[in-house]
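To the wet lab folks,

You asked to see what we're planning to order before we commit. Fair enough. Below is the target structure as tokens, and below that is the sequence we designed to fit it. If anything looks off to you, flag it before the synthesis order goes out.
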């Protein structure tokens, strides 16, 4: 008889080889297409950035700085003044000797055009007790704001006992600071073309000039970096003690700022921080002392005129 070779195994092997080749080819084509689309998308984004970087900027509005200019002015961002939920602040000096404060915005969510539109809005806000916006940087992924530099830095350095407190603010200065903050907030809430809720009123965001005139800083930043309101609430939780109960219920009104302002006034008078996580938070102690008629015991013991301070607490 004639022996016939079994070809079934060979056929199966051929099918497997062909299948692997087809799948491999399709995978390679997919990867090549994906790489091409990614490269094209990146190129378009870079072209848009370059186009936006050369947009004309109207005269009279905040100055436009390059990233290199701010890098040089701050000595490569080496002198940090502070940090918060929106980003860090660095001290700098321009070529003409002008001192500035440069705030780098973390995770800025807007494109260059949108960012500049919001900067234009902020640049048109002028008030004696709001920190002046001098300029900005919107270069590629960098988003920075350039503010005037105030020599006596933030209020918390002056009202809370610590190793950096140079001297105790007298009652006349403290009451002036309270009045200035109130005027700045009133402007934001009632006199701006577009109402601005600050969302983060606290001593760290109140800056003092050489004569201890108070200026509200960081206003309008929540909108500027395009954060959702829920994200702003999360950010505020990182600084407990100032957040109004209404915000926990997602009620966004100027009352949130008014509550925070009230807490800060108590801190200014008492020279103590309101620690929300403490069983003996400042507001709880204030309530009990008021009921007992012993508010004077809460006033900063190093302050000169305690009777007038008590009237503000009442």
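Sequence we intend to order:
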């Amino acid at each position: 008889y004639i022996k016939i070779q079994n070809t079934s195994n060979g056929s199966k092997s051929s099918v497997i080889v062909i299948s692997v080749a087809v799948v491999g080819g399709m995978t390679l084509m997919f990867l090549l297409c994906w790489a091409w689309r990614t490269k094209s998308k990146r190129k378009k984004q870079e072209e848009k950035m370059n186009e936006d970087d050369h947009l004309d900027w109207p005269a009279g509005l905040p100055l436009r700085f390059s990233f290199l200019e701010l890098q040089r002015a701050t000595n490569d961002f080496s002198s940090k003044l502070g940090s918060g939920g929106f980003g860090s602040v660095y001290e700098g000096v321009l070529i003409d000797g002008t001192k500035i404060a440069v705030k780098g915005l973390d995770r800025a969510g807007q494109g260059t055009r949108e960012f500049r539109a919001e900067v234009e809005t902020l640049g048109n806000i002028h008030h004696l007790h709001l920190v002046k916006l001098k300029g900005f940087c919107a270069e590629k992924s960098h988003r920075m704001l350039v503010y005037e530099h105030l020599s006596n830095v933030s209020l918390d350095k002056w009202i809370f006992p610590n190793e950096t407190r140079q001297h105790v603010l007298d009652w006349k200065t403290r009451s002036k600071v309270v009045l200035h903050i109130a005027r700045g907030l009133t402007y934001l809430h009632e006199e701006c073309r577009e109402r601005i809720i600050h969302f983060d009123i606290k001593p760290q965001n109140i800056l003092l000039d050489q004569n201890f005139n108070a200026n509200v800083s960081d206003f309008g930043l929540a909108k500027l970096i395009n954060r959702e309101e829920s994200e702003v609430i999360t950010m505020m939780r990182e600084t407990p003690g100032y957040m109004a109960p209404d915000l926990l219920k997602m009620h966004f009104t100027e009352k949130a700022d008014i509550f925070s302002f009230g807490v800060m006034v108590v801190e200014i008078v008492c020279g103590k921080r309101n620690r929300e996580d403490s069983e003996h938070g400042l507001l709880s102690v204030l309530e009990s002392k008021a009921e007992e008629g012993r508010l004077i015991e809460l006033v900063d013991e190093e302050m000169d005129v305690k009777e007038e301070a008590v009237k503000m607490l009442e």
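Structural context that might help your review: Residues 63-148 form a domain with the Phosphorylase Kinase; domain 1 fold (CATH 3.30.200.20). The chain has three domains: 1-51, 63-148, 156-313.

Thanks,
Computational group
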